Amino acid sequence: MKAKTLRRIYLREATVMLVAARLAVRFVPAAQLFAWASRPPERIYRFAADEVDRVSWAIEMISSKQWMNTSALPRALAAHAMLRRRGIGSRLCLGVAHERGGLVSHAWIELGHKIILGGAETARFTRLVALGGEQT
Q1: How would you write the chain as a 3-class SS string?
Q2: Over the stretch 60-91, which tens digit does the pLDDT of each residue have?
Q3: CB atoms within 10 A of CB 60
Q4: What are the CA-CA distances from residue 116 to residues 30, 67, 101, 105, 107 (Å)?
Q5: What is the pLDDT of residue 136?
Q6: How are beta strands 91-99 and 126-132 bridged, if at all?
Q7: What average pLDDT does the segment 89-117 reach?
């Protein structure tokens, strides 16, 4: 498959997953979302470096569009779903930080000890929850 075609496929899937994640965050109870995110992938694909890069690229590209306007949690849920579909066990992490007298939250995706999505801001956040995980 040509690289241009592959990029389009990933961008389309990222768009659908981000819209679904935004709707899920709004309408699905948090307990159900967390139960879904905690399940391991049905199959394991261990040689997936290219897949991981493509998924994170597609999610970042689509979520950066002004019309999408997604926060960290839908981005992390969408990336987590795309990785699980490919048999890649990632961790969805949720954290909080103090800011201007209040709390702010953030979500990011980890694979092993590497942050693959939402990593630019994670240093200031305290991790509260890590859902899912790799199968060894």
Answers
A1: CCHHHHHHHHHHHHHHHHHHHHHHHHHCCHHHHHHHHHCCCCCCCCCCHHHHHHHHHHHHHHHCCCCCCCCHHHHHHHHHHHHHHCCCCCEEEEEEEEECCEEEEEEEEEECCEEEECCCCHHHCEEEEEEECCCC
A2: 999 998 888 889 999 999 999 999 999 898 99
A3: 14
A4: 23, 23, 29, 18, 12
A5: 38
A6: antiparallel
A7: 91
Tokens of 42: 């049905």
Higher pLDDT, 42 or 10: 10
17-47 burial string, b = 16+ CB within 10 Å, else e?
bbeebbebbeeeeeeebeebbeeebeeeeee
Phi-psi region of 11 (alpha: psi -120 to 50; beta: other; left: phi over 0): alpha
Question: Could you tell me the pTM of the whole model?
Answer: 0.89
- The one-letter amino acid at 1: M
- Count of all residues that appear for the chain in the document: 136
Widest pairwise Cα distance in the chain: 52
CA–CA dist 129, 102 (Å, integer): 19
Q: Are 96 and 67 in contact (CB under 8 A)?
A: no
